[in-house]
Design brief:
Keywords: Glycosidase, Hydrolase. By secondary structure, this protein is of the alpha/beta class. It folds into three domains: about 120 residues, Immunoglobulin-like (Sandwich); about 290 residues, Alpha-Beta Barrel (TIM Barrel), CATH 3.20.20.80; about 70 residues, Golgi alpha-mannosidase II (Immunoglobulin-like), CATH 2.60.40.1180. The protein contains 15 helices and 26 strands.
């Protein structure tokens, strides 16, 4: 038994309240080292000799990553404070006990040697995520390239490759006109990249946070978009760029005019005066996003600056009833700011959704007092490696996802924004060498897993495009440019996802991988509903005679027993 790999902590990731009176406990062990873990617990304040409150519950191995297994147990209690310890047995039947960060050879009887869980404290720290968001489908829109209410010449709209500066004149009215299409596709949430006043097409360098960019329309157009989407049962998320601004933002403009005498000099990180914007070969003499002088970084440690941008976020929430914020470069802003931000947002609307942009594991921000979730770029990386590049095995793919499941708060997993590409990456179809069967596999992995799949506009029609900015081409509304087979595949996946809740909410009851064949076989169950999902990540055909004749829920056709290249099938195994 590897003692050094056994880990538990009395923190928000390993011991927390799921709801009032219901608590989750988690422990991490070395991969394939421990076969059984039992959670022992009792009331801290009632001596055993007066009333024996001791109970025990076998924990369940819920997931694994490349190095660790994760065991969890959920208990219902109503006491002031809980004391608990773990009983661990390895595959050689050696048993040890772990309590209060120490190992013991015999069962722990003294509460001083146990871990401690105050019920009221844990319930006060409960992670409350909007129920409406769980496992819903997000659609990302890049407004200038998605839809226009104007007549745009085809040679302009469908230009490729496309650069940073082309404004295709997409606008908010154009998005409203396409809402019925999104509703029909099965979209639940629309996420718009920045729409506020800016000189650029991407709008990530904001000049005025209180004005809609004139090329997109007006505040009334936004109001109409939100109201129309809400009437159709869809939510609207806006993009908040609070890490940096345009140099033309009023505060930075004042610094440029008045230099050291500016009242706003502490709104940014100015290293020296006079200001120097820098160039390709020289950094600016102020902090900025990615050393780019055109995006000076805000000093949100300054209370005045922090208050201004929190008020910006609250304004659009209150006045235009948006449903939440996606936060740009969010991991480069302090925890202190995000805690204040969450309190302000949730005070206005407890059901507003807060999503951070992070390209790595983001557990520190996901403990219930900052964001609700993140753009799941670790999922993106795993899908790229498994489906596009074929550089990792099926086992490694599940291990990468297992790391997230084992380390994040359980409440977060259903609201992770699972993406296969975005406005910041090359299109998946481009990275997989234009192999449409690989795109279909990636879409299946995205849409048939728990979480919130985030579809980048046009993926459902087989849009391609290289790295930024070529990934931001005009949306293919003309049938000439659409791949209807890909679109039908997306529609079918979304329908299956929505028809069978066990796909997103069910417990995994069997997991099988066959690495040489690139096979992932998952069976999920929820009540009497049971679905088997089979993902094939290789080109060579694979025989699966045990499923021959079973209807494939995605296509509606009986499975012929042979998985074709990069094929995915879903079998209703409730009666098997």
């Amino acid at each position: 038994m590897e003692y050094s790999s056994i880990f538990h902590d009395m923190n928000k990731r390993y011991c927390y309240a799921l709801e009032k009176g219901k608590f989750l406990f988690r422990i991490r062990t070395k991969r394939n080292d421990i076969k059984r873990v039992i959670l022992h617990y009792q009331d801290k304040y009632i001596p055993v000799q007066y009333l024996d409150t001791r109970k025990q519950l076998e924990m369940k191995r819920v997931t694994s990553d490349s190095y660790s297994d994760y065991f969890e147990a959920v208990i219902s209690i109503d006491i002031i404070c809980l004391r608990y310890f773990f009983e661990l047995t390895d595959y050689s039947d050696c048993t040890i006990y772990y309590g209060n960060y120490e190992f013991y050879e015999h069962e722990i009887t003294s509460i001083d040697h146990m871990f401690d869980c105050p019920q009221n404290l844990r319930e006060e720290e409960m992670f409350c995520i909007p129920e409406w968001a769980k496992n819903k489908i997000v659609y990302q829109i890049f407004p200038s390239r998605f839809a226009s209410s104007k007549q745009i010449p085809e040679e302009i709209w469908y230009k490729k490759p496309i650069g940073h500066k082309e404004n295709l004149q997409g606008d908010l009215k154009g998005i409203v006109q396409r809402l019925p299409y999104l509703k029909d596709l099965g979209i639940d949430i629309i996420y718009l990249t920045p729409i506020f006043a800016s000189d650029s097409t991407h709008k990530y360098d904001t000049i005025d946070y209180y004005q809609i960019d004139p090329s997109f329309g007006t505040k009334e157009d936004l109001q109409n978009l939100v109201q129309t989407a809400h009437a159709m049962g869809m939510k609207v998320i806006l993009d908040g760029v609070f890490n940096h601004t345009s140099p033309k933002f009023f505060a930075f403009e004042d610094i440029r005019r008045n230099q050291e005498a500016s009242a706003y000099r502490d709104w940014y990180f100015i290293e020296e005066f006079p200001l120097r914007k820098g160039s390709r070969m020289e950094k600016p003499n102020y902090k900025s996003f990615s050393y780019y002088g055109g995006m000076p970084k805000l000093n949100l440690r300054n209370p005045e600056t922090a208050d201004y941008f929190i008020q910006v976020a609250c304004y659009w929430l209150q006045q235009y009833q948006i449903d939440g914020w996606r936060l740009d470069v969010a991991d480069e802003i302090s925890h202190v700011f995000w805690k204040k931000f969450r309190k302000a947002i949730k005070a206005i609307n407890p059901n507003a959704l807060i999503i951070g942009e992070v390209w790595h594991y983001a557990g520190d921000f996901l403990e219930g007092d900052e964001w609700d979730s993140v753009m799941n770029y670790p999922f993106y990386s795993a899908v790229q490696a498994f489906a596009a590049e074929e550089s990792i095995t099926a086992t490694k793919f599940l291990e990468d996802l297992g790391f997230l499941r084992g380390n994040l708060h359980q409440s977060v997993y259903p609201v992770l924004w699972n993406l296969i590409d975005s406005h910041d990456t090359a299109r998946f179809l481009y990275t997989c060498g234009e192999k449409k069967e690989k795109l279909k596999l990636a879409a299946a992995l995205q849409l048939l897993m728990p979480g919130m799949p985030m579809i980048y506009y046009g993926d459902e029609y087989g849009m391609t495009g290289g790295p930024d900015p070529d990934c931001r081409r005009g949306m293919v509304w003309d049938a000439t440019y659409q791949d209807t087979a890909i679109h039908h595949w997306y529609q079918s996946l979304i329908q299956v996802r929505k028809k069978f809740p066990c796909i997103t909410e069910g417990s995994i009851i069997t997991v099988q991988t066959v690495d040489e064949a690139g096979l992932i076989i998952l069976t999920r169950q929820l009540s009497d509903q049971k679905i088997t999902l089979i993902f094939h990540g290789k080109e060579a055909e694979v025989k699966l005679p045990e499923y021959t004749g079973q209807p494939d829920l995605i296509t509606g056709n009986p499975f012929n027993g042979i998985l074709k290249a990069y094929e995915t099938i879903a079998i209703n195994s409730s009666s098997l």
